[in-house]
TrEMBL record:
InterPro entries: GAF-like_dom_sf, HTH_MetabolicPath_Reg, Tscrpt_reg_IclR_C, Tscrpt_reg_IclR_N, WH-like_DNA-bd_sf, WH_DNA-bd_sf. It comes from the Bacteria. It comes from Glutamicibacter protophormiae (Brevibacterium protophormiae). Residues 61-246 form the IclR-ED domain. This is DNA-binding IclR family transcriptional regulator. Residues 7-67 form the HTH iclR-type domain. Keywords: DNA-binding, Transcription, Transcription regulation. GO terms for molecular function: DNA binding. It holds the Pfam family HTH_IclR.
Length: 247
């Protein structure tokens, strides 16, 4: 039996689509070239074509699945990102700090999206978020929202690493902090010296998540900052709880 005629450019384009679809975050063109083992010029050419046809969407920092691809598949994380990033960017511009969306999924606390306005200081997340939730405001907000069994399971699998002199490293101390009943969570230089974060949980029945902003520790936090964060959490909750997308 003769071999079917295969079109190489179509195969390469499909490899790019698969790489974007399998990613939980925006994927830069250079990373896509590495993932698919394609020359960078070829990658750019195929990405432009896929974008023109609506199968990919170009956003700040890389590519997401486009409407043509999403319409033919089950709603994916990329569609979620397209909805939440405007909220995060607006919050970043309003507060002057980098903003973060994190969620609990498949037993881990994962960073879903980041946004920052041009003058904002972004925290370099050099330690995996799933290994440092105890030291971040959004991690503590999510831990506090877990049921006891979930929290015990999570903490049994994660050490409380000492990232700065201010990091909580005692599980007993962390448990007391999580039981405080606060509605706005913070870390005061617990993850990185010179930087503090605020976070609030996202009101949603579909996921356990939190939105956060990082600010210089020297900056005083105003009540208006907290209110802005809470408004963003409500907007994110509405965007992520419409029955079309869950994570």
């Amino acid at each position: 039996m003769s071999q079917p005629t295969l079109i190489g450019s179509v195969q390469k384009a499909l490899r790019l689509l698969e790489a974007v679809a399998s990613s939980s975050t925006i994927v830069p063109a250079k990373k896509l070239a590495r993932l698919t083992d394609l020359p960078l010029p070829t990658t750019y050419h195929l990405l432009r074509t896929l974008e023109f046809e609506g199968y990919l969407c170009k956003v700040d920092g890389g590519y997401l699945l486009g409407t043509a691809a999403v319409a033919r598949t089950r709603p994916a994380r990329q569609e979620l990102l397209a909805r939440v990033r405007p909220v995060l960017r607006s919050l970043s511009e309003e507060l002057g700090g980098a903003t973060y969306l994190a969620a609990f999924e498949e037993g881990e606390i994962r960073l879903v999206a980041i946004a920052e306005e041009s003058e904002a200081q972004r925290v370099d997340l050099w330690v995996g978020v799933h290994e440092s939730a105890h030291a971040t405001a959004f991690g503590k907000a999510i831990l506090a929202g877990m049921d006891p069994a979930q929290r015990d399971d999570y903490l049994s699998r994660h050490d409380l690493y000492d990232l700065t002199p201010h990091t909580i490293t005692s599980k007993a101390d962390l448990a007391r902090s999580l039981a405080s009943g606060v509605t706005v969570w913070s870390d005061a230089e617990e993850y990185l010296l010179g930087v503090s974060c605020l976070a609030v949980p996202i009101p949603s029945e579909d996921l356990l998540g939190a939105v956060a902003v990082s600010l210089p520790s020297r900056r005083a936090v105003a009540e208006s900052d907290v209110q802005s964060l809470q408004r963003a959490a409500r907007r994110l909750g509405a965007s992520m709880s419409n029955g079309l997308i869950t994570i």
